[in-house]
Write a structure and sequence with these properties.
about 10% strand; globular; five-stranded mixed sheet; two-stranded antiparallel sheet; Nucleotidyltransferase, domain 5
Length: about 350
């Protein structure tokens, strides 16, 4: 990481993005502020931004906040017009905000200075291919799974307050039989009667559970098809499967070659150790609480499967246990190893590797 060597005539633009309006600030190559622009978050506004920036000099780079959300449209527009942006991942720390204040223009200027200083160097995800489709289907599936769990939990909580006769009939049943029985309940009579309202509510929750159950099956089948088509080697790796593979692909993005190396990918997943040494404790490391926590959780699930069924992993666990490491420490080591393996199996990375090397990794 280092500052960019630019001439005064070069222009660096930082953009603070919001749903309906973006704010841009331009700096010259020496860091002097050239101006600011408020623009609508649509194609007309993006064209206005590009024309404004080019009128100030030779545009070197755009730094855009939120390239995965509010800034995605702008990032796509700039990429189409030959100005691939740099993603600025976060605003300044609270201490800096206390000194310089907080406004959209100030945030945009910080974004530009982060690019100029070489702090912001991340290539945004393209979000225009198979992996973006996987991400969208996974959102639909994950939200359905959450609502599915909420429905059965709520049903059981409501059943606790039902009349004793209804409780005696329904509580001994397994979840599936309970839902089936509740879905058949008929609410006839005056809805001002709590017993009638109880039967109506139980039936509604049960039918919701059944609908979500069927919806999840559809999403899961589609997710399996898309994931296998995108990364068959990754899906077939021991302990990975479609769900973990989908999350790994989403973390890397459609352009997985934007991740410089396997160490950078491990950092993205929060699987790399963080130095915590000082003085006599030099060389000490601590748990990494950063990175993509969904990716970290996916690595954890795969590691747990391997610790139970994968012979090389079992042998490693036994060896490290004999060395005195705790189970938590061993899992952290295994997640780091698995992140390295997953990186080599990402589509654009594996395509660039010799076939015999890829087989050795898998």
């Amino acid at each position: 990481m280092g500052s960019i060597a630019l001439e005064r005539a070069d222009v660096v633009v930082g953009v603070d993005t919001h749903k309906d309006q973006h704010v841009a600030v331009a700096l010259d190559g020496l860091g002097a502020r050239l101006g600011e622009l408020f623009l609508d978050a649509n194609n007309d506004g993006y064209a206005q931004l590009l024309a404004w920036a080019m009128s100030l000099g030779q545009v070197h780079r755009f730094g855009v906040e939120g390239c995965g959300s509010y800034g995605l449209g702008l990032a796509r527009f700039l990429r189409r017009h030959g100005h691939p942006p740099v993603e600025v991942s976060r605003p300044p720390r609270a201490g800096e905000r206390r000194l310089s204040g907080k406004s959209d223009a100030i945030d945009a200027e910080h974004a530009a200075r982060a690019v100029l200083a070489g702090i912001a160097t991340v290539t945004p995800k393209l979000a225009d291919g198979q992996v973006e489709a996987i991400r969208l289907v996974k959102i639909a599936r994950d939200t359905a799974v959450k609502a599915h769990s909420t429905a059965i939990i709520t049903l059981k909580a409501v059943l606790v307050t039902a009349a004793q006769e209804l409780r005696d009939e329904l509580e001994p049943l397994t979840d599936f039989r309970l839902v089936t029985a509740c879905a058949c309940l008929e609410a006839t009579g005056d809805f001002a009667d709590p017993n009638v309202a109880m039967r109506h509510t139980l039936a509604a929750l049960a039918r919701r559970w059944i609908e979500l159950h069927d919806e999840i099956k559809i999403h899961s089948r589609l997710l399996k098809t898309l994931t296998r088509a995108a990364a068959p080697e990754l899906v077939d790796a021991f302990g990975i499967g479609h769900d973990v593979a989908a999350q790994m692909l989403i973390t890397a993005g459609d352009n997985s070659d934007r991740v410089r190396n396997e160490a950078a990918f491990a950092k993205m997943c929060g699987a790399c150790p963080v130095p915590a040494g000082s003085g006599k404790t030099s060389g000490r490391h601590r748990l990494n609480r950063g990175g993509n926590r969904q990716a970290n959780a996916a690595l954890y699930r795969a590691v747990i499967v391997r610790m139970r069924w994968h012979e090389p992993t079992i042998a490693y666990v036994n060896k490290r246990t004999a060395d005195g490491l705790s189970k938590k420490d061993i899992i952290r080591c295994l997640k780091r190893y698995l992140a390295r393996e997953v990186y080599q199996l990402l589509p654009e990375i594996s395509a660039a590797r010799p076939p015999e090397t890829l087989r050795a990794v898998a």
